[in-house]
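Can you make up a protein sequence with its backbone structure tokens?

===
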Amino acid sequence: MLDPSQRFTRKGWYLIPGPLTPTPEPIHTVALRDITEYDYPVVAAAILSVPGTRCIHPPEPKWDNWVGRWESGDSSIEVDMFPDTEHFTSKASGRYFWSGGWLRCDCTVSELADFLRAVRNRCPGVWLCDGGDHKERGGSRLHTPETFLAMPALPSK
């Protein structure tokens, strides 16, 4: 189990849409089938609802440019709107929807879990992705705050 006070400064981790309904874990990105379709403003509002979070770059000229930042003491978490080369497109409506956001963290493991928990209170289809090796482990793993905290150790990359 991870030490909640351990500093988390990993690169390559991100928030990603996943299933809305409970599903057996672990979930690997290569097997991901049900993706919750959130509009960008909905996810931005969920992120900004976390106490201590503010918008540091507005969605101008488009949502790809949006960045939110949470701060508390010497800890911080930044999340963007995943400036992908290819956006997720709804099969039902043809519109773009939120495809995730890179994390830049300098916080404790517990603070990241609390941040994710607060975002998921408004958007339960948002998951933490560990950015793992797609060949060796069947893709990156998706985590809830609880499965993140229950990890035996952080991957060694």
Summary: The longest strand covers residues 101-108.
